[in-house]
Structures are given as structure tokens and as C-alpha cells.
Write a structure and sequence with these properties.
The protein is α+β, with helices and mostly antiparallel strands. The chain has a single domain, classed as Endonuclease/exonuclease/phosphatase (Deoxyribonuclease I, Chain A, 4-Layer Sandwich). It is 22% helix and 28% strand. Helix 1 links the parallel strand 1 and strand 2.
């Protein structure tokens, strides 16, 4: 079995207790983090030193930052991809390792929010999604599991939005963003949560403002994607909303997938 989770923690140092609890109680084999918001030398290694994880980092001061915890020895690490329009921002981390379900290539990604629709930042977001798609298509292999987890900042279907009419044409919910996300999925990748829960409306992010979580005004913008080789081994995929109820939580919650031979 292989248990893998993705979580935008919105600052690892602010969410130390939550991440430590998740690792010790949920015991994922691999955990992908986004928005760690610290440089590699500032990462709180001591907090996790007693846990059985190898940790790869791609950090940045105060912003962005991605990390991967793996119970398995890591063979290769990449911190950028060909075609990335913003290589100076820490938004991508890729590792390879041997797992119980086969040799695997694992990616943690933090797609830009995009800011105001139509802005320069929004155009960069679209370019980032295009570049990521081209890169993922280029590394397809029938011999490897390819699993990508992260905050994609896109809610691709109406069921992924608490109110499609209210959110229509807003950032993360525009038609062009949805088209880019669906193109990324294409024929090569499966949305694991939606495979496991085709008709269930759940969210992975709620705004801190306006009592978003209490009112369940959320979006599903955090994903675990997999190529066919990995997707056919999927046993379950779920969103763990319990971490949004904790004191000083991240605005995102973990998405978890379990694979078996």
C-alpha cells in the first residue's frame, strides 16, 4: 500500500503542530506541502527529526515554497521544469523513489493564484499551467507511477464551487482557467478524488474572511493527479476537513489517496 497526501499549509512554521499531528496520526508514506513560506535553512527540521521521513525542499523567503516528506529513499530531486515562466519562484519540486506500488515520480506543485482576472499575474498563471502540462506530457512513462499533488488554484467543475453563479468569472473559476486545467488532465492524467467520489461535493479551501468554513463557502482547488499506471492502483481518495477546524488553521486541508497493488 502507498498513502500519499497533499496540503497547502500556508506557512510551515505557523502550522508546525498541525503538520506534526498529521504525520504522526495519519502516517502518510509521502506528504506533499505547498506554501511553506521559508528558505531551506529556515525549515524546522528539528520538529520532524524523530520521524521516519526523508525531506526534500525548495523554499523561498516569506512566499511560496514546496516540500516533500518521503518514507522511502529519494533517488532524484528537481526544483524546476522546462517551460516554467517563473523559475525564480519556488513552486515546483519533483522526486523519484521506489514505493510498494512501484517506481514513482512524485511532484509537489503550487500554481500561482493569478490575482485579478486579466492582470499580468493572471497571464503568468495561464502560462504556468501551459508549461506544466507540456512538461508532464513530456515525462510520461509506462514504467513509472507519476503522481502530482498540489494547490492548482483552479476549480474545474461546477461541483467544485459552492456557488457557480456567484463565482462565475472570478479568479480560480473563469472558463479559461478551467480549460487549462482540463487540458492538463487530458487523456494522460486522472483526478483521483473525482474518480473515487464522482458525485460528492466537497471543498479543500475556504476563505478566512466572511466565515467561509462555517458557511461551507469553499472551492476544491487542491488535487492529486496520476497517470494511468498509478490511477489503476487507487483504492480510495478523500479530503480531510478536520484540520480546518483547528485553532489557527491553514485555509486549505489535506487531500489523501491510498494505492494498492
Amino acid at each position: 500500500m502507498l498513502k500519499i497526501a497533499t496540503w497547502n499549509v500556508n506557512s510551515i512554521r505557523s502550522r508546525l503542530e498541525h503538520v506534526s499531528d498529521f504525520l504522526s496520526s495519519q502516517i502518510p508514506d509521502i506528504l506533499l506541502l505547498q506554501e511553506t513560506k521559508c528558505t531551506d535553512d529556515q525549515f524546522p527540521h528539528d520538529q520532524f527529526s524523530s520521524m521516519p521521513y526523508n525531506v526534500s525542499l525548495h523554499g523561498q523567503k516569506s512566499y511560496n515554497g514546496v516540500a516533500i516528506f518521503s518514507k522511502y529513499p529519494i533517488d532524484e530531486v528537481k526544483t524546476n521544469f522546462d517551460g516554467n515562466p517563473i523559475p525564480d519562484q519556488a513552486r515546483f519540486l519533483e522526486i523519484t523513489c521506489n514505493t510498494p506500488v512501484g517506481y514513482s515520480r512524485i511532484i509537489s506543485v503550487y500554481v500561482p493564484n493569478g490575482g485579478e482576472v486579466g492582470s499580468d499575474k493572471f497571464a503568468i498563471k495561464l502560462d504556468f499551467l501551459d508549461g506544466l502540462k507540456a512538461y508532464l506530457d513530456s515525462i510520461q512513462s509506462k514504467d513509472e507511477n507519476l503522481i502530482i499533488g498540489g494547490d492548482f488554484n483552479v476549480a474545474p467543475f461546477d461541483i467544485d464551487l459552492y456557488d457557480p453563479e456567484v463565482l462565475k468569472n472570478t479568479t480560480c473559476c473563469t472558463e479559461v482557467e478551467k480549460e487549462k486545467m482540463l487540458a492538463l488532465l487530458g487523456d494522460n492524467f486522472a483526478d483521483l478524488y473525482r474518480i473515487a467520489n464522482p458525485d460528492l461535493q466537497e471543498f479543500s479551501w475556504w476563505d478566512y474572511r466572511s466565515a467561509g468554513f462555517a458557511r461551507n463557502h469553499g472551492l476544491r482547488i487542491d488535487f492529486l493527479l496520476a497517470n494511468e499506471n498509478a490511477a489503476r492502483k487507487l483504492k480510495e481518495c478523500y479530503i480531510d476537513k478536520s484540520y480546518r477546524s483547528l485553532k489557527k488553521p491553514s485555509d486549505h486541508v489535506p487531500v489523501v489517496a491510498v494505492f494498492g497493488v
